[in-house]
Every structure is written in structure tokens, then in C-alpha cells.
Amino acid sequence: MQPFPTFELPLAALAQGTLYVLLIIYVVFTVVMYYHWQNYSMNKSVTAQTYVAYFVTTLPLIAILGLSVVAL
Amino acid sequence: MSTTLYEKIELESDEKVLTTVRKHWFIITIELAIIVLFGLAPTFLFMIVLSLPPQAVLVSFFETGTPLIVFAIAAWLLLSAMAAVTAWTNYYLDLWIITDRRIIVIEQVSYFNRKVSNFRLERLQDIKVTISGLIPTLLNFGMIRAQTAGAAESNFASPGLPDPRGLQSLIQTAMDSRLKTIGNLPIAPD
């Protein structure tokens, strides 16, 4: 009886592809969010706080994503 | 001289903004809490797996797959952060502006889905308040529906508004005062 063929999942390539997709989604989302707050917000201070909270939360996550792909 | 308000809406020369209202804080708090719980779910799951008795398959996976686990958790957290910002945007950019002449209802339904409606107080016919449920009753928020003298689509309703009875009273007072003012205005000659 022939054994099942085994194959290795190219995890590093998959993660890299996922990273690129996530980066595209992130950039598009950021532009859309920025557009809405610039055009429709009535309070500059709240707008600024929203931007700061958004980038302080998301940029480290982007960095972690990049570093973990490098480590794979 | 007119003043430009939000959404490039021109206020009339002596029009006064009585109040601006956003949805109740409980609405955004509960939305953000759900997103945070979903966001942290994989981290909790990971911690539960780590607390289990070590099994050979899991041990070998954690030894080799740590960057992959970190990648997956970071990706999930990033998507959760984006969901949280979307919820906050939809909350903050939703607004009711009540002036002594009209009600301006700005609804930020989602990105690229925004509705801005103007309702003149003299055209309002009925304002109905609904506070339904334990939490809305305790925290005093609910739905306001207003019927206008026009097509059915010009009626409007908004859920989750704070102190709906206070708002109803404010609108009612403004409406009465507006009707009195209109009644006292001299009729312009032809």
C-alpha cells in the first residue's frame, strides 16, 4: 500500500501574502477613515485624539506583523 | 448674516442652535466592549491552550510556530482595531442638531452611507418617545419618532438617544414657540 503523499505548507509565503493583503486593506481603510473625519467631524480635538488612538494602536501591530513574517 | 454649521448647512440669520445630541454613551460602550472581547478571544484561547497539560503535538507546534501564532494574533487584533474605529466613527459622526427653527438629523450609517435630513419645526405633527427594556429605562435612553406633515418618507426615527423625554419636551417647546412666531409675523404684501 502506497503511503499518503505528504507536502509542506509554504507558511512563510502564505504569511507574506496575507501581510500584503492586510497592508492594502489597512491603507484603504485609513484613507477612508481619514476622509470621513476630515470632512464630517465638528471637533478638531476629537478628530486628533481619534487619529492618535488609531495610529498608536495599529502601527505597532503592523510592525509585529512585519517582524513575525521575517521570523518565519 | 448666516452662519455655516455642520455639513455646510447654512443657519438663518437669527437661528439659534438649542442643542446637539449624539446617541447614548451606553450604545458605543457596548459596541466597543463586544469588539474588544472578540479581539482578545484568540489571546485567551492561546492562554487556555498553554495552561493545558503539554501534549507532544502542541509542544512541537509552539516550538516551531511561535512567529505564526504571533502573526495570526496581531492580524486579528489589527482587524479588531479597525472594527472599533468604524464603530466609533459611526457613533461620533451621527448627530441631531435642534435649532429654534428645525431639526437636522445626520445619520452616519456606515462609511460612504450618510444621510442628512432637515425638518422644519412648523411641519412637525407628532413626536413619539419609546423607552423599551430594563437598561434603556435605567439609563434613560430610547427612540424618538417624529411625524411631519408631508410624505411618509419624511418621517424620521432615531434609536438610542439620551433623555428622550427631555428632548421631546425641548422640541415641543421650540415647536410651539416657532408656531407662535410664525402666527405673529406680518403677511408680506404681494
Task: Give an account of the 3D structure.
The complex is a heterodimer of chains A (72) and B (190). Chain A is mainly α and 72 residues long. Helix content of chain A is 81%, strand content 0%. Chain A is built from two helices and no strands. The model of chain A has no long low-confidence stretch (mean pLDDT 89). The two termini of chain B are 25 Å apart. Chain B has a four-stranded antiparallel β-sheet with strand order 3-4-5-6. Chain B has a three-stranded antiparallel β-sheet with strand order 7-8-9. Chain B has a two-stranded antiparallel sheet with strand order 1-2. With 190 residues, chain B is α+β, with helices and mostly antiparallel strands. The mean pLDDT of chain B is 85. Chain B contains four helices and nine strands, in the order E-E-E-H-H-E-E-E-E-H-E-E-H. The relative contact order of chain B is 0.15. In chain B, a hairpin with a 7-residue loop joins strand 8 (141-148) and strand 9 (156-162). The A-B interface holds A 11, 15, 18-19, 22, 25-26, 29, 32-33, 36-37, 40-42, 46, 50, 54, 57-58, 61-62, 64-65, 68-69, 71-72 and B 6-7, 65-68, 70-71, 74-75, 77-78, 81-82, 85-86, 88-89, 92-93, 95, 106, 108, 111-112, 114.
